[in-house]
Amino acid sequence: AATGAGEIRIIGGQWRRTRLVVAQKPGLRPTPDRVRETLFNWLGQDLSNWKCVDAFSGTGALGFEAASRGATSVIMNEQDAALVQQLQRLQQKLDARMVKVQRGDALSCLKTVAGQDLILLDPPFGQTELFEPALKAAIAALNDGGFIYLEAPEAWAEERLLEMGLELHRYLKAGAVHAHLLKKQ
Taking the model in full, what pTM does it have? Predict the structure, then answer.
């Protein structure tokens, strides 16, 4: 098992270039810097007044990036207790008052929120059964102009997304990561 520390680097916004030390756990893959940079270029750099949910938070790389860029509310949800503690430590270190860290199941979390502008879905790649239910729950939690970011081990076909009521807005492949930015039809 991989132990020891890695780090994530916040790319833009008020905490730009801040490095956060994170514990490494088996199966934990922080979203690569290049993918995060591209995602926030797609979204526009300024997320002022956005409400966001990072449903499979992990290291928090995506959620902290959104908070750094002005989001007023970022719910970071994570099931693993050790990762939740780590997220809480990082939140305190940054004094990130717009961030709410909570422990629990991603699908339950998505079912309790509404009117979100951005929902970040980066499920464990090994748990492909989570992807479709997570997308469906995210659609219901989204406001009309909102976005869903989906990070997956494969490309999702546009037809499959359309059947779910989603439009593929942007797409990027970087290494093993397939990054999709989705909008409600």
Answer: 0.95
Q: Average pLDDT of 56-80?
A: 97
Give the containing element (helix H, strand E) for 77: strand 73-78
Distance, CA of 30 to chain centre: 10
Distance CA 156, CA 87 (A): 29
HSE-up of 114 (CA within 13 Å, CB side)?
A: 0
User: Of 66, 65, 67, 106, whose CA–CA distance to 83 is shortest?
Assistant: 106
pLDDT greater than 80 at residue 177: yes
Kindly list the distances between the CA atom of residue 76 and the CA atoms of 2, 87, 116, 120, in Å, as whole numbers in the listed order. 24, 8, 13, 10
Q: Supply the pLDDT for residue 103.
A: 98
Q: CA quadruple 134, 136, 141, 144: dihedral positive or negative?
A: positive
Q: What pLDDT score does 1 carry? A: 40
Query: How far apart, in whole angstroms, are the C-alpha atoms of residue 98 and residue 96?
Result: 6
Q: Among all chains, which residue has been given the structure tokens 């833009």?
A: 12
Contact 184, 142 (CB under 8 A): yes
| Each residue's pLDDT tens digit, 90-114 | 999 999 999 999 999 999 999 999 9
Q: Which two tokens stand for residue 82?
A: 């050790």
CB burial class (10 A; 0-12, 13-18, 19+) of residue 6?
A: middle
